[in-house]
Amino acid sequence: MGGRPKIALYWCAGCGGCEESVIDLAEDLLTVAEKAEIVFWPVALDARYRDVAAMEDAEIDATFINGAIRLDDHIRMVRLLRKKSKRIIAHGSCAHMGGVIGLANLFTPRQLLECAYRQVPSMADPPGPLPVEGGDGPRMPELLPVVKALDQVVKVDAIIPGCPPPPETMARVIDDVIHGRLPAEKTVFAHRKALCHECPRLDSRPEKIEITRFKRLHQTRWDPDVCFLPQGLICLGPVTRGGCDARCIGANMPCRGCFGPTERMDDFGAGAIACIAAMMAGTDEPALAQLVDSIADPVGLFYRYCLAASVLGTGPTP
Predict the structure, then answer these.
(1) Distance between CA 317 and CA 315 in Å, rounded?
(2) Which among 91, 88, 115 is positioned nearest to 103, based on CA atoms?
(3) Average of pLDDT values for 109-119?
(4) Is 149 contained in some domain?
(5) Which structural domain, as residue segments, surrounds residue 205?
(6) CATH number of the domain that 70 lies in?
(7) Which of 26, 27, 160, 183 shows the greatest Cβ crowding within 10 Å of its Cβ?
(8) Confidence tier at 318 by pLDDT (50, 70, 90)
(9) Half-sphere exposure of 266 toward its Cβ, with a 13 Å CA cutoff?
(10) Lowest mean pLDDT, pick from 18-27, 117-126, 163-172, 205-214
């Protein structure tokens, strides 16, 4: 690559945490600005769609896209960035799998707008028009029928998983781009093995786990040095890629799967359900039903980050 490499960053539907994973580079971000040309970053720089459209195809060396695909404008922008970039990198869980945003696929766009604009207690004018109902103002972006992961819209070359990704990983990937080491296709910047292999509580996990009742964190006093699972607390570490340095475990919280599935798993949610089901004690159907009923919000638990990318992620019938 001649001259300084060109980098772009774009934010679709997300919370801003992935942008923070870039800001968390702290003073190293100044080094990035010196060694690379950041040609597009709407969150931090004044930039226009037409500026990107005017670039040559594949002029941008690497574009980091975070957030899920929620609006028609997102599709338009990521397709343009795909055309203008040598590499597209899915940055964070929402771009990778649809993320928490993907749980919106349990409802129709109309239901979501009704809830946000008419049903919340703080809404001052519940009868007011919804954004999709038009008006004399500027065009509102259109909500897609369902939330999509980035690779359901454009080809993705590499993935940085996490909600948000660790800043150390971001620093390493950006440093590679700066020095001309673009990621190989299908690269996932995480470990191939499950999180359990790097969990500090691994030695406390028994060979066989039999759960008789699932508990929530506020319902029990759990041992901070023992594996969550034999204590009846659901942890998705056995089916989640490692590489996060077990940050949540270190904070005494069970894994919820933001790094996504291990490489041999087709559907994270299905794999997580199968894993936990194998630990359920007993064969009596009424007792098993009661045990299952003790899991609060199964969809929000097992599909928290991956519903949009799952076999279930097609959305409800309008």
Answers:
(1) 7
(2) 115
(3) 89
(4) yes
(5) 195-309
(6) 3.40.50.700
(7) 160
(8) very low
(9) 2
(10) 117-126
- 13 with 86, same domain: the answer is yes
Q: Tell me what pLDDT residue 282 has.
A: 77
pLDDT score for 2: 58
The CA distance from 193 to 215, in Å, is 27
| DSSP string computed for 168-222 | HHHHHHHHHHHTT-PPPTTEESS-SSBGGGG-TTGGGS-SS--BSS-B-GGGS--
Higher pLDDT, 283 or 189: 189
Q: Single out the residue in 188, 204, 224 at which a domain terminates.
A: 188
Other Cβ atoms less than 10 A from the Cβ of 107: the count is: 14
Q: Are residues 47 and 157 in the same domain?
A: yes
Q: Give CA separation, 30 vs 38, 183, 194, 271, 282, in Å.
A: 11, 22, 34, 42, 58
Contact 96, 161 (CB under 8 A): yes
Q: Is the separation of the CB atoms in 70 and 147 below 8 Å?
A: yes
Report pLDDT digits (tens) over 15-74.
999 999 998 888 888 888 889 999 999 988 888 899 999 999 999 999 999 999 999 999
Pairing of β 143-148 and β 85-91: unpaired
Other CB atoms within a 10 A radius of the CB of residue 191 amount to 16
Given a contact cutoff of 8 angstroms between Cβ atoms, the answer to whether 272 and 239 are in contact is yes
Global pTM reads: 0.92
> Residue 77 and residue 68: Cα distance in Å, rounded?
12
Question: If you average pLDDT over residues 191-203, what whole number do you get?
Answer: 95
Beta bridge partners of 91: 160
Number of Cβ within 10 Å of residue 94's Cβ equals 33
Residue of 222, 276, 280, 272 lying closest to 252 (CA atoms):
222
Is there a single domain that holds both residue 175 and residue 247? no
Indicate the number of domains in the chain: 2
Which pLDDT band holds residue 130 (cuts at 50, 70, 90)? Answer: confident
